[in-house]
Specification:
Helix content is 79%, strand content 0%. The chain is mainly α. The two termini are 20 Å apart. The mean pLDDT is 86.
Length: 296
Amino acid sequence: MNRMVKGYLYIILSAVIFGFTPLVAKIAYANGMNSISLVFFRNLLAVPLLFMITRYRKESPSVSAKDLKQICILSLFCSCLTPLLLFSSYNYIAGGTATTFHFIYPAMTIIGGIVLFRKKANLGQILCVALCTFGITLFYTPGEELNLFGSALALLSGVTYAMYILLLDHLSISPMSRFKLSMYVCGLCTPVLLAAALLTDSFVIPGNLICWTICLMMAILVGCCAGVLFQMGTQLIGGERASILSTFEPITSIVVGLIFYNESLTLRSIFGTVCVLIATMLIALLDAKHSSADKM
């Protein structure tokens, strides 16, 4: 399988898994959990699972001091700042609105690449980002009350996630499996998330088997699968393409809502989905064209 196709599949599969997590999270919330505690236990339980995978692969768990510093920076933007900002925004604005603002990150990834790493964005990439951004904005329901502080938190979560993607693409971390990298990211984030939960008086220990099962499911789905797939895909196709393709996540959430919660499908969300799909197909076609041109 060609490198680019493999990268597309990894990112899209990652986005689909991420899109399913709100369904699982809603069950946990109904059983007494909250968002920060769920993310904490998701990371905590993922660490031993990822450690066992690295040992099975006969990979040394140690890293150099230089790599550890860079992974700390990566962890700050990945599993610390981004979920804390996004979940905090839910206290002020509706979840759908927060998600819409969060998904400015494809555009911010392109802009960040140009400003910070002097990358050149071609017309095709700009068009894809414009289509994605327009499509995501259509998922916002008009008439929902907007809070300036909550909106700023959600927007900042998009900026920090864009920084994570750019750092993942550009940091000079020594070659290691994405399982090992994810193990360190989850491990480094766990104490920070615990401190945030305790300081905000929102730390909740799972109170029943359902909550513990969901925490374990999230650790497997997000920590060991979706997060690793996203890192592998970004490594293969670059941060800009990865950020565009990851917009399959809200589409999956809409489909899940339709199937499991009988949520209504509006004309706006249909049109938004079409825009995202067109952008995805466009970037794939442009890559195929460039690949063919390079072989000639």
